[in-house]
Specification:
single chain; 404 residues; alpha/beta; Alpha-Beta Plaits; binds calcium ion
């Protein structure tokens, strides 16, 4: 697709979430469950992600440093490497130096024109707001007595509740309730890309904490138990309390995982666009992370549509280390909201999933956001096997059910 088409295409960004909202495939009828309202979102006016060719520095290429030093260095280097841009520091929003090389910045038309002609530049893509409506469901337990431990149906179905202690899961989401007594969170390695709230990693939304609990809730006397019970969670916060964030933050989080993770770790990305949108930068960042042996589970999306037209879900296609995950119900049936298609590797429990929630609580939510972390947990334990399959309602395509 040509750059001009990419920029002009009217996208609506939103996070995948715990929702049943979907666009029916047959036309313009939109169904919304009582659970969740999706907010439309927009391109960030004037903000672009610029990806360099791998050899952009030519003979002057230097040794790559640790993540934090590298980011400081890139912030100095990029304005001088691209000095004709006269790029002001406050307009340089993100730098990328590991999973891909590039930056996200506020750019005017003349700066864009210079970059389009620059032989060192591989791609220029518009940055987007990602957002989700206020999460709902049945949260509870926060501030009160912790409930006795139960094993959620999805954990049982896929053969989870296995010891995951010592494994590490990177959760790219709305942050995590780091004080939750049913989660083991590595605060030191956690990061927030959310500019509001002093870059706190704490989850003011609930979505990220819910995802984390499905991956790794501790096998103790309280609450729930995760697939890889007691695994260490690293929170990479790219969504604010309202569930709104920037696509560039997600690329930055993947860049950080590339630099900081090790083979055998796993990443969960329960996020993506609500309507069709393909972005080469986030897909490339996911491929690079997966190439290091850090496996990634990605929610297929909740639009009842072909996931081939959605980034990053489409990245699961033809990549053995990236698992794109569709959603099923507790009766091994297709979840009506779930995306489908050739990128989908496996299907996992996503309807009425109980897990940890913000403020020390628990909640039962639905969405491919809830299916993906089941697979992330399996990736921590080893390879993903299958057990049975689910045929999409009213169609002939079927998907293997993920299992330990
Ligand atoms: Ca527990
Ligand atoms: Ca795959």
């Amino acid at each position: 697709m040509k750059q001009s088409q990419r920029i002009l295409k009217p996208f609506i960004w939103s996070l995948l979430l715990m929702t049943g909202l979907f666009f029916s495939c047959s036309g313009d009828e939109t169904e919304i469950t009582p659970l969740q309202i999706i907010e439309a979102s927009n391109p960030i006016e004037g903000q672009f992600t610029v990806v360099f060719k791998s050899d952009f520095q030519g003979k002057s290429e230097r040794k790559v440093m640790d993540y934090d030093s590298e980011m400081i260095q890139l912030r100095k280097e990029i304005p001088s490497l691209f000095s004709q841009l006269k790029l002001a520091d406050e307009n340089l929003k993100q730098t990328y130096g590991f999973a891909l090389k590039g930056f996200t910045a506020v750019l005017n038309e003349s700066q864009l024109e210079l970059l389009r002609k620059d032989p060192r530049v591989k791609s220029i893509e518009k940055d987007y707001i990602i957002s989700l409506g206020k999460p709902s469901g049945t949260p509870g337990g926060g501030g009160g007595t912790d409930p006795a431990q139960e094993t959620p149906w999805g954990i049982t179905r896929i053969g989870g509740a296995t010891n995951g202690i010592g494994k590490t899961a990177w959760i790219i989401d709305s942050g995590i309730d780091s004080g939750h007594s049913d989660l083991k969170v590595d605060i030191d390695r956690s990061r927030s890309y959310v500019t509001q709230g002093k870059y706190s990693i704490e989850d003011g939304n609930g979505h990220g904490t819910h995802v984390a609990g499905t991956v790794a809730a501790i096998d103790n006397a309280i609450g729930v138990v995760g697939v890889a019970a007691g695994a260490t969670i690293v929170a990479l916060r790219v969504l604010d309390n309202r569930g709104s964030g920037q696509f560039s933050w997600t690329i930055a989080a993947l860049d950080y995982v590339y630099a900081s993770g090790t083979s055998g770790d796993a990443v969960n990305m329960s996020l993506g666009p609500q309507s069709r949108y393909v972005d080469s930068a986030v897909d490339a960042a996911a491929f690079a992370v997966a190439g290091r042996g850090i496996k990634i589970a990605i929610a297929a999306g909740n639009s009842s549509d072909d996931s081939l037209f959605y980034s990053p879900a489409r990245a699961g296609l033809n990549n053995a280390n990236i698992y794109t995950v569709a959603s099923m119900t507790s009766s091994d049936s297709w979840s009506s909201f779930s995306n489908y298609g050739t990128p989908v590797d496996v299907i996992a429990p996503g309807s009425s999933v109980k897990s940890t929630y913000k403020d020390g609580g628990y909640a039962t939510l639905s969405g491919t956001s809830m299916a993906s972390p089941h697979v992330c947990g399996l990736l921590l334990l080893g390879n993903v096997s299958t057990n049975g399959s689910v045929t999409r309602t009213g169609n002939s395509d079927s998907y293997p059910i993920a299992h330990n």
